[in-house]
Amino acid sequence: MAETSVESVSAQANQGVKGNFRWVVRHPIWAFVVIIFLFFSLMTDTFFSLGNFENILVQTSTLGLIALGMTIVMINGNIDLSVGAVVALAASLTVDIMGWPMFESWGNWQILPAVAAGLASGVLLGALNGLIVWKTGVDAFIVTLGAMLGVRGLVFVYTGEQSFFAMNFAYSDFGASRFLGLPTLAWIFLVFTLLIHILLSRTVHGSNTYAVGDNREAAVNAGIRVGPHMMVNFMIVGFFAALAGITLSTQMGASTPNLGRDYELWVITATVLGGTKLTGGAGNIIGTFGGVLAIGILRNGMNLMQVPAFYVLVTLGVILIAVLFLDKQLNRKGDGELRI
Amino acid sequence: MAGFVERMRNGDIKSLIARNGIFVAFVAFMIAFGIGSDRFLTFDNLESVVRSSAMIGIMALGVTIVVISGNLDLSVGSMLSFGTVMVVNLHDKIGPGPAILVMMICVLLLGAVNGFLIGFVRLNSLIVTLGMLSAIQGLTLIYSGGKNVDVNPSTQDTTWFRVFGRGEVAGIDMPIIIFFALASFVGFIIAFTPYGRRVYAVGGNPTAAVFSGIRRNRVVFSTYIVSAFCVGIASIILGSRVMGSQNNVGQGYELLVLASVILGGTSLLGGSGSILKTVIGVLILGFIQNGLLLLGYPYFAQWIVTWIVIILAVWLDVAAKRGRLLSPIA
Amino acid sequence: EPMKIGITQNNVGVDSYQTTYEKAFIEAADADADVETVVLDAGGDVARQIAQIQDLVQQNVDAIIIWPTNGKAVVPAVRAADKAGIPVVITNSNIAEEGFDFIKSFSGPDNITQGSRSAEIMCDKFKDMGIEKTAQIVQISGQPGYTTAIERAKGFEDRLPEVCPDVTLVETQPGDWNREKSQRVMEAFLVKYDKIDGVYAGDDNMGIGALNAAKAAGRDGIIFVGATNFAVGYEAMARGEYWGSIYQSPVDDAKNALATAKAVVEGKDVPFLNYFDTPKITQDNMDEFTKPVF
Amino acid sequence: MSEAQPVLRLEGIVKTFPGVRALDGVDFSVFPGEVHALMGENGAGKSTLMKVLAGMYQPNEGRIMIDRKPVVMRNPIEAKQNGIILIHQELSLAEQMTVAENVFLGELPRTRWGFVDWKVLEERVGSILAKLNCDFGPRTNVGSLSIAKKQMVEIARALTHHAKVVVFDEPTASLTDAEKVVLFDIINDLKSDGVSIVYISHRMEEIFTISDRITVLRDGSYRGTLVAADTTEDEVTQLMIGRSLDYSRNIEQGEIGDITLEVDGLSCGRLYSDVSFAVRAGEVVGFYGLVGAGRTEIAETLFGLREPTSGTIRLDGEAVSIGSPADAIANGISLVPESRKEQGLVLGMNCRDNITLPQVDDMTAGPFVSNGAEIAIYDMYRDRLDIKAPSWRSEVGNLSGGNQQKIVIGKWLAMKPRVLIVDEPTRGIDVGSKAEIHNLIRELAHSGYAVIVISSEMPEILRVSDRVIAMYQGRIMREFTADEVNEDNLVQAISGVGNGKAA
Ligand SMILES: Nc1ncnc2c1ncn2[C@@H]1O[C@H](COP(=O)(O)OP(=O)(O)OP(=O)(O)O)[C@@H](O)[C@H]1O
Ligand SMILES: Nc1ncnc2c1ncn2[C@@H]1O[C@H](COP(=O)(O)OP(=O)(O)OP(=O)(O)O)[C@@H](O)[C@H]1O
Ligand SMILES: [Mg+2]
Ligand SMILES: [Mg+2]
């Protein structure tokens, strides 16, 4: 067909010009990460050092782990606002259970059932959210907005408003431990990032995740069991929220009922900055990783530059919008686009 | 309205209930609490609940319109902090009238920034308003230097500014009157004017709206102006009620406001929803908090009950619309 | 070379106290040629505070002052700083005992004592009025889960039965350090309880919110006792509407913290619990105090 | 064939929606290896019946038998397991994914490790696409395809399975002739493999080309089954709409007035270039060309949706600049867009509000929209276009495809424009209504409108146009008057051969 050859010739020419920028166009957040990285390296003496990079990795690992799960549910066309509350629940459960008298004789092994219980709580709440979304057909935004309040309530019921302290120092030692030259928490984050990247890009479940988010009705028609599929994804995000709560509590050796407040908003921000669409069907882990790093570097860099607290808020807000704007400019479509 | 009357005449009560699941939820709820506590259905209590819901309610009016047009506004909470701090701070300096004027202009400007970025530049509304949430919070702190602001105590009882939060007309508190007046006004505009029709169309299918000659950019822009206007009004009431303000008074309101809008059955996808239902949503949320307090439950019980009620109410609403309880998704 | 002292605060801008503290801290540091500071704010988030402590360790400051967002959760971070050889001073509200080994000193008010003192103020007033056998009171506490809120409530609740065993605390609800929230909570209390003789609020800001509600409902004769005396509270006392509070100066708080940290760096001896005094203030003795600046 | 047992039998199927009895005791049976056409007016219940068959809807009454065993199919998955595949009337694709992923959606091949087996996937899809003569590869993004090609992707799905029954619901509504030929070959192949086909279309000539038997539905009830070889178009039409069609009722050309719209040297990037033509009041100009020829893009430019890179547009002799559809409407230009779902309708709104949307500003009583005026307009076009909807309050999204299209047309006719552009106006419209719409277009021209008709159906172009403009790859090749034009020279002009003036 003649008209396609016209198209493809010009498309090829296009590729030649833009070839090198293609990757950046697909992940504009990484351009931004590089820019702020250079900026803070030049502006402060303390930013550019291995120790600081490790700090950034560990500090972002909390948001980062949750963002992995959030990316999946958002590609799926859903959202989970309850992650912050799940962070607090898992942390409180884990830290508390490890101190139960029944595990006293277990020594350091007492950490295991506690961690298992913490993770299970996240997975279960995820399953509950997913089940409600599936069976009632109520939008995930609403279901998880409710859960965000309700789970926080459960945390307060469980803890009686108290913070818990991990008597077993092995727990917080783990949070500070290193493995093969990197902080263990950084490893956990990196390994799960890789796993989820593979899950999304290589497996059937990953492909279905995109399909369901892209066009739920089409997915139903094509015979994907959309309900259970979504439920699994909610369980994944619940797992990661719980895991983040646990790794965070290993850093603190303690838990507080207010842990994870506002995390949902920051995680969603990082994910969207990474190119995941709120409407579903698009996004990837490479972008999310960039989004998480961007927020981590910004916060760390501004701390090191001693930006006054009030201005940090303004700067963060403005930068969020600026990145979105950058993304829009890079992804501008050609003359095929209508002026809608 | 005409449809409503007609359906009543046809005796089609079942379909009426089906279409308005949220009202049923509301009534059931009021009865339950009325049985649980003898104070619940007293005039004083009802008035107190509606009064304390009025600010969330007024903000929810604007957010409803934003959501109907297919967007979100998460910046209302920090905008409320900003407006309240500003109007209270300026009250003693330039007098209540100018203070209100200057504050309204500033808040509308913030709304215009939202509207411009989302309507004309076409940036994602969730992230823009989230960014604005943070930026406005910072602006507020810079403006106030982080300090609480207060109306000079010696004028607190004499300034006419007190009317908005503390005044009464015919025994009814002013915030309630403003809330219902504004709700009727906005409700009529959105339901019965060409402007309202355009807002629904833009939310329902933006492409088709543009193909129908609607200037989508302007419509989206305008919804954020309306939202900012509502926040401005809420700021006046809050400032007047408290006669002072903190930099974080509005923190967390964005999600409460959104929750009540959604509770009323406005879909986040845009194109549907109504002010009347939002008002019901606001009242349900207000009564949950109050009802449990009266029954003597601790505050975190409110959160758990809110969880259950939000899901049940919205479920009832969508189930009624689709005519079956469970979703057909396999 | 000046010494470098880093501080991570709880949540600047959440109320005037913290803001005034920050200002006073920076002013005091600027006035002192020997000190250079890194001033950070955790925004109320424990995780962010831990990150900030790590960043300060990374910068190798000479001392770290921490205003804990949570007394327990910062302990491992404090321990890490201590391991890195950086002395830590805690300010305003203390950390959990488990962390005492890793800090040089605590500088600040004693929140439990403050709670007890508020209970005493309340009780003394009831005795004056002769209603200590029948009085019913309500409590409006600070943001749930935060140390200051918990300690003040605990101090109050423990002390009250000791001094006035017949006074009943009928209900406690949080006001989140927020005047408007507190006003709403009080409105609900007023509907619910026909008899309220006293209100204890976790700070004056919330106390004034409660007072607003009582005034609007036309309920006179309620005794309001708060903590952290704010300017609005002081003025309300002057008008005779508000009974008493605890006088606590953020300027003293800040200066005390900086001085403690400086002394630690210089290797001087400092008391481990370096409390500064927070006296009772009521309508009777308020002339002895200047009006708070915040 | 009649002695064989039906592979599929639907008995007494009843399906109701709030306020509508969409199916009222329909019987329908399909024999192995036959092509069974299902016909009926818009809203007769064809798609609903097929959705019941595919497990998307549960019937209120009646039963489904496959191989003489009653089955209950609660969802599309179970239908698939029973060997039933439905190619939807409305496209049902994941737009942001590749062709390959879409074709095997829900059943992607796996490797031993549970990963997607891309190699196998691409091979299998590649061979299916080759069979369908498609010029795009398995890795192409579906979102970048034209509607016709998306339709081919849908059709490709039918070939992934060994199905018992394949249902095509109006597959040709947006296919070109070339693709149609491929489709019919595929259908014949399937048939010779013993697969049964249910084929829905409003195009008589297709029905008689490929079907063995024809079942007609009317207002949700069964009207009869005819053997294709023994019947005529007229008989089928009679059964469908209760009367014969009178194709000759073509309204005479009225008085041709002054030039209303004039386009001079209009270009828009790579989409089309150097386009010049004029339309006079009282005249219908048809634009014909292959899909992708750039006709839609010209219409969109005139309607303010694209910015031309060069050239001028004149209305009544005055140059105008049209920045948006709002400007276009203010200038008296209307466009019935190509894609009803995306561009034409707000699916969640009711019928009345959709029809009056472009002019809602003018329908006020005081500050409020006037209920009466709106309903009057709705009623008028409902009657004219024979729109079948339970009431004006029905959500447009719940109407049948053809009735949705009628709402779009009604919406733009109600504007009473000076220049009316209609892009593929009768896509999915039944024969009766189609004739009615053609008459309407003629009538409008007669009363002084300037009308542009874009269509890929040659009979339609030939029937309504006073002049025909043939386009090829973004350029005007030739202009014909109604007297000159015929099928042969038109086909020649749009395929780029011959003596087109711009060639
Ligand atoms: N989900 C629904 N809700 C309400 N009514 C519906 C729904 N789906 C279909 N209908 C109604 O059922 C009737 C039959 O519609 P259907 O789509 O089956 O028609 P069709 O024969 O396929 O028409 P077309 O030729 O236009 O595609 C119509 O009156 C339509 O309005
Ligand atoms: N061969 C092609 N390759 C890529 N995109 C195409 C191709 N053909 C058409 N398109 C694009 O697909 C969209 C819709 O295609 P459609 O088939 O309606 O083409 P069109 O230009 O409108 O054709 P016509 O002028 O015949 O109506 C248009 O935006 C068009 O640019
Ligand atoms: Mg159909
Ligand atoms: Mg076209």
Question: Would you kindly provide a written description of the structure presented here, covering whatever features stand out?
Answer:
The complex is a heterotetramer of chains A (340), B (330), C (294) and D (503). By secondary structure, chain A is an all-alpha fold. Chain A has helices at residues 2-18, 22-26, 28-43, 50-75, 83-97, 111-136, 140-159, 169-176, 184-202, 204-214, 216-221, 226-252, 263-273, 285-305, 309-330, and strands at residues 164-165, 178-179, 182-183, 254-255. In chain A, a hairpin with a 2-residue loop joins strand 2 (178-179) and strand 3 (182-183). The longest helix of chain A has 27 residues, at 226-252. In chain B, helix 4 (43-68) crosses helix 13. Chain B has 15 helices and 4 strands. In chain B, strand 2 (168-169) and strand 3 (172-173) form a beta hairpin. With 294 residues, chain C is an alpha/beta fold. Chain C contains 9 helices and 12 strands. In chain C, helix 1 crosses helix 9 (250-265), helix 2 (46-58) packs parallel to helix 3 and helix 4 (111-129) runs parallel beside helix 5. The chains are: A mainly alpha (340), B mainly alpha (330), C alpha/beta (294), D alpha/beta (503). Chains in contact: A-B, A-C, A-D, B-C, B-D. At the A-B interface, helix 6, helix 7, helix 13 and helix 15 of A face helix 7, helix 11, helix 13 and helix 15 of B.
Largest interface: chains, residues each: A-B, 52 and 54 residues
What's the main sheet of chain B like?
A: 2 strands, antiparallel
Note poorly predicted spans of chain B. 1-11
Bound molecules: adenosine-5'-triphosphate, magnesium ion
Strand order of the largest sheet of chain B: 1-4
The biggest sheet of chain C amounts to:
6 strands, parallel
Task: Return the structural class of chain C.
Answer: alpha/beta
Strand pairing plus helix content of chain B: what structural class?
A: mainly alpha
Portion of residues in helices of chain B?
over 70%
**SSE topology string of chain B:** HHHHHHHEHEEHHHHEHHH
Indicate the CATH class of chain B. Mainly Alpha
Count of runs of 4 or more consecutive helical residues of chain B: 15
Number of strands of chain B: 4
Keywords:
heterotetramer, A: mainly alpha, ABC transporter involved in vitamin B12 uptake, BtuC, two-stranded antiparallel ribbon, two-stranded antiparallel sheet, 15 helices, 4 strands, globular, disordered N terminus, C: 294 residues, six-stranded parallel β-sheet, four-stranded parallel β-sheet, 9 helices, binds adenosine-5'-triphosphate
